[in-house]
Amino acid sequence: MTAERVTVSLPPEVLAGARGAVEAGAAESLSAFVSRALRTQLQRDQALAELARVMGGPPPREALEAVRRDLGLGPLPESHAS
């Protein structure tokens, strides 16, 4: 797989968490960790877009919150538009 070098700025606590995850063996490198995180976000966005397409619009915030609770995830960020 070819890769392209990019420069990003991250909040210190995010970078520290990512580096800690790499040190703990969650990924072989910071690049691999970031790549997986971006891929996961893209897949999530695609899944939500498909759900919106099938439902005729985005799912209600309450439905997303219920699913997140069932999965043991935290609440949606306040910036999430329903």
Secondary structure elements and pairings:
Elements: H1 12-23, H2 30-55, H3 61-70
Give an overview in words.
- The chain has 82 residues and is mostly helical.
- The protein has one domain.
- The protein has helices at 12-23, 30-55, 61-70.
- The radius of gyration is 16 Å and the shape is extended.
- The relative contact order is 0.08.
- The mean pLDDT is 91.
Distance from N terminus to C terminus (CA atoms, Å) equals: 37 Å
Q: What average pLDDT do the residues reach?
A: 91
Report the biggest beta sheet as strand number plus sense, adding barrel if it closes: none
Count of individual beta strands:
0
What is the 3D shape? extended
Strand portion, in percent? under 5%
Rg, nearest Å: 16 Å
Count of alpha and pi helical runs? 3
Whole-number total of structural domains: 1
Uncertain regions spanning at least 5 consecutive residues:
none
Short structural summary:
The chain is an all-alpha fold and 82 residues long. It has helices at residues 12-23, 30-55, 61-70.
